[in-house]
Amino acid sequence: MNIVVLGAGSIGCYVAGCLLASGTAFNSSNTLTLVGRQRLYDDIVANGLKVTDWQGRNQMADAHQVNFTLNNDSLANADIILLCVKSQDTKSAASIINQCAKPNALVISLQNGVGNADLLRQHLEHAVVAGMVPFNVFYKGKGHFHCGTEGNLALEDPYNHCEELVKALENASLPVTVYSDMAAVQYGKLIMNLNNAVNALSGIPLKSQLGNRQYRLVMAKVLSEALTVLNAEGIRPARTGKVIPKLMPTIMKLPNFLFKAVAASTLKIDPEARSSMYEDLILGRRTEIDYLNGEIVRLGKKHHIATPVNSHIVELIKQSEMAQKGSPHLPANALLNN
């Protein structure tokens, strides 16, 4: 099994680091290669690849154990391609796979958003598996990737194409739930990901942001708009963790003492965790806002349903992208379209 992680950012490096550090055998006949950016290449060559999580995982793969490259040619030997690029880069990644990968390579989309697997199938003749990563990974620098929230990886694999990979992931303490249809699961993850932008705009850790009722009231409006347009589209988002999607607006409105009582059993969040969109703003990168809150805005327009809060948040994120100054550290009331 030769695995290549294409677009090895925070998620790709974390998954790869868990596999390498777990003792799962990767050698000359069973390899793991990361394809990513110069910044992470330099950090990992200098420091190795460290993975930690909110439950106490603390593992290290030395630099010599990590095959990190900037060259897409490594796709030529891939049996499995873990695609971890941003949603806006899916089409260009498909072009790279077509150019470099063998026809029987299996492509697994470990991306945010709901349409990436379908887009890949439009542009690839390769078999494509839809995946979903429920947890948050934040890059702390010097090759250190920290998972700050809980959840099982999800794969749409009705024909057991991923059986060997699933075993390797579970041996690396990355449990996997396999589905025959991922659509409802992906929309369930989309509901959770709508907080990414609120967190990025707030500029504070996720736990602090969700502990602040004013930001939760913003999220209640964001989620209510989302559930309304998804209902109009005929979509029932699946429960991807311990929280039932349709109850989330109500939970977000709870007073702090009640929210903390509920969240203690439903939301396991490390105090250090932040959204990947926050990191994108810090690094001056384009975010995935069009594929998250932007998807809610798109569906709202399709069904003639107003989505003022999601629309305003999309605009605020795009303004922050253009400003290139990181998070604007906005108070909660600035996120509402008053």
Report on the architecture of this protein.
This protein has 338 residues and is α/β, with parallel strands linked by helices. The chain is 43% helix and 15% strand. The strands form two sheets. The protein has an eight-stranded mixed β-sheet with strand order 5-2-1-6-7-8-11-12, sandwiched between helices. The chain has a four-stranded mixed β-sheet with strand order 4-3-10-9. Strand 9 (137-141) and strand 10 (144-147) form a beta hairpin. Helix 13 packs across helix 14. The longest helix is centred in the middle third of the chain and has 21 residues, at 213-233. The radius of gyration is 19 Å and the shape is globular. The termini are far apart.
